[in-house]
Amino acid sequence: MSNTKKMWDGRFESGMAKSMMELSFSLDFDKELLEEDIQGSLGHCRGLVQSKILTEADFAKVKNGLEEILADFKAGKSLFNESDEDVHMAVERVLTARIGDLGKKIHTGRSRNDQVSTDFKLYLRHRAADLLVEIKDLQRVILALSKEHLGRIMPGYTHVQQAQPIYFSHYLMAFFFVLQRDRQRLQNFLALHCQLPLGSGAMAGSAFPYERKLVAAELGFSDVSSNSIDAVSHRDMALEFLGDLSIIGASLSRYAEDFVNWSTAEFGFLTLHDAFSSGSSMMPQKKNPDSMELIRGKSGRLIGNYMTLFTVVKGAPLSYSRDLQEDKEPVFDSVKTVRVCLQVMREALETARWNFATMERKMLGALLATDLADLLVERGVAFRDAHHIVGRMVGEAAKRGIEFNELPDSEWESLPGKTELRTLLTFDFSINRRSIEGGTGKASVEEQFRKAERLLEDSGK
Hints:
With 461 residues, this protein is mainly α. 59% of the residues lie in helices and 5% in strands. β1 and β2 form a beta hairpin. α3 (34-50) packs antiparallel against α4 (56-74), α7 (168-192) runs antiparallel to α10 (236-262) and α11 (290-313) runs antiparallel to α12 (328-351). The protein is elongated.
């Protein structure tokens, strides 16, 4: 048994078993919250001044002590010892050692329950703001690439089969707009989870009331929690955050999958910079798209973290149970994972070489089949009949080992418009017929650029 004194051990005769310490102590990972813990304590102490628990002189001394602890932590100085159960108790212990008994006053009217909820919510809000910047940086790169290469054509795919011709820029702008929804989800998260938990105490509210709205303003919250049990017991904020990060990961993974395929000899559309590739330990010719494969793989980790926390909270009784200590590691891991994935995707796209000549060379005539059906409709043929006619032509061409637009004149003579239809069927013709809003036509893509620019300029959307 351990004989090390704990801040809460007045009730206990023996120390905590070593095995229990290993199970219980969280400082090794929750020190990630140290900056938020100090920020939360300063906000709390400002409230204690307002309620006359602390004087302004007391607050100044506490503030100086806490800021010194933060500076020492950032400088890599040793602050903790093996008796520190978590970052919250560690900060209080170090502060008390430095400024004396005044350090023991800062926990007045506060429980670790509302302290932890506040620190964690601050952390989530800070990291959401950081990730909004990372996403926006990636969007800027995507928009710049799309503008630079407007006019370059490529085959568009469904079912990993060539479907219709599109502008490369149209493909990339799809990535921009999915990331825009990722940004919007994080902004929605910030708007929804903006209530201060401090003042909720352990679960029934603090017996040392202070002006909670004052503390909320100090800490950047727009309101205070309406119910003390809710404030300390629920972790839907973390679930929502992990869900948002999982969606970001899944979005990145789908594009990474395409870029892995595009980098193969079979496609040849993309050459990643050496800095975002690796070789083989056996095969000297290999250049592997490891950056994209790792991004694809990390999406499973993000989804796993989301499910981990969902499993923890689904049966945790109200108000607080120690199960909820398991809320932090999945979040810390997902934040680091998403951040590096966004950075790698951005840098890999910035430095990639896009092989447009190969894209165009590999475009099949069958990409124009839908356009022929549309032209027949314009000449009075019902769409289902037009679909059947063109399908028969494509099937006949396949039997002959050619593209349908290479069929001899005799196959076109029965069509309204006859062989002149074939002269209309070009990739540029197909693309520029689709200038409907949101389509791949040049005018439409240019409008997407303008919309994207407005979204990037307005950080609130």
